[in-house]
């Protein structure tokens, strides 16, 4: 696959340029420490994949109208919700760096990081309420519930080699795909275009979200810390058993010993990664991601969208798949 695949920004360039400035304005707060902690997250950068997806959906589905103020704000709200979830994830996973910079709890402490995450969730909720659309408030609020559900499911299955592939996919939905599924649907709801089926875009977001998470978990195994911008093998270290490892369990019994030891010895994580790489488990995990992405592609190909808009939504799919090629 072509390494030069890029996220489609040209059609939404004006909206995207204002996004970062608006994010800083939205997290403004009088408390210097809290603001500094929140600002640290946005300074770390990131590709802003989620708002790019939403702004492209808004452009594709808004009938003869420019992207509305509400749709732009929803894209910003979604990025703040995602960022808030990362703060809490980093505390739970004891992750010292993200995107190559110090995490909030590493730079400050756990208390400040928890408060910073809570603050971002609260800010996003306030801006969400100001959209004055009860149905959108309901569907976006579910994302935060799903985040908690996903973390609990992950925590209760920590170092548990009896986890099934179905349980792994369900957890991945709650932790990642729910945000994309719900926010994609909400963006269409705000377009007020009766010719567009909202649930199709819910499914589009769900499938690209699941593919994204499976690929992210593969990268945790096959990439270096420098490439990831965070420690490699962190999922294994924290007992988060992902698709590649689950597939390997049937082939390599030594993994059971390493999991029972909770990867507590220095070389345990590297030993597990080497064991996984000796099988076709990484490819089988990739196949799951490809299957979900094919479903997302099929949904968009059937939609009654302009050629250019359809191409941009498909490019997003190919970009996400291209992350591990």
From TrEMBL:
Recorded superkingdom: Eukaryota
An individual GO BP term: quinone biosynthetic process
Gene3D superfamilies cross-referenced by the UniProt entry: Farnesyl Diphosphate Synthase
Cofactor: Mg(2+)
Gene Ontology molecular function: any one: prenyltransferase activity
Pfam family, one: polyprenyl_synt
Record key words, sorted: Chloroplast, Isoprene biosynthesis, Magnesium, Metal-binding, Plastid, Transferase
Record's keyword annotation contains Transferase: yes
Keyword Cell division: no
Family of the protein in this entry: Belongs to the FPP/GGPP synthase family.
Protein's UniProt name: Prenyl transferase
Organism name: Leptosiphonia brodiei
């Amino acid at each position: 696959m072509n390494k030069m695949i890029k996220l489609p920004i040209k059609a939404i360039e004006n909206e995207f340029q204002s996004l970062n400035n608006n994010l800083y304005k939205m997290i403004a707060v009088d408390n210097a420490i809290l603001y500094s902690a929140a600002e640290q997250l946005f300074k770390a950068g990131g590709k802003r994949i989620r708002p790019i997806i939403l702004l492209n959906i808004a452009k594709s589905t808004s009938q003869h109208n420019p992207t509305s103020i509400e749709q732009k704000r929803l894209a910003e709200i979604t990025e703040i919700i995602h960022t808030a979830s990362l703060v809490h994830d980093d505390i739970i996973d004891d992750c010292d760096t993200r995107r190559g910079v110090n995490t909030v709890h590493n730079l400050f402490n756990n208390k400040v990081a928890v408060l910073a995450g809570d603050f971002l969730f609260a800010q996003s909720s306030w801006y969400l309420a100001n959209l004055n659309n009860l149905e959108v408030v309901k569907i976006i609020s579910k994302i935060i519930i799903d985040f908690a559900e996903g973390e609990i499911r992950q925590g209760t299955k920590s170092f548990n080699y009896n986890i099934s592939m179905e349980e792994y996919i369900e957890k991945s939905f709650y932790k990642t795909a729910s945000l994309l599924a719900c926010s994609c649907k909400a963006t269409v709801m705000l377009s007020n275009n009766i010719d567009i089926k909202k649930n199709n875009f819910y499914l589009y977001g769900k499938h690209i979200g699941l593919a994204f998470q499976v690929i992210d978990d593969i990268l945790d195994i096959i990439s270096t810390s420098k490439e990831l911008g965070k420690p490699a093998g962190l999922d294994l270290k924290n007992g988060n058993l992902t698709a590649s490892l689950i597939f390997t369990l049937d082939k390599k019994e030594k993994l059971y010993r390493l999991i029972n030891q909770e990867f507590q010895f220095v070389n345990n994580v590297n030993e597990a990664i080497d064991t996984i790489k000796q099988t076709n488990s990484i490819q089988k995990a990739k196949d799951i991601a490809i299957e979900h992405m094919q479903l997302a592609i099929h949904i968009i190909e059937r939609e009654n969208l302009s050629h250019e808009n359809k191409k941009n939504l498909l490019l997003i799919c190919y970009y996400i798949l291209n992350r591990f090629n």
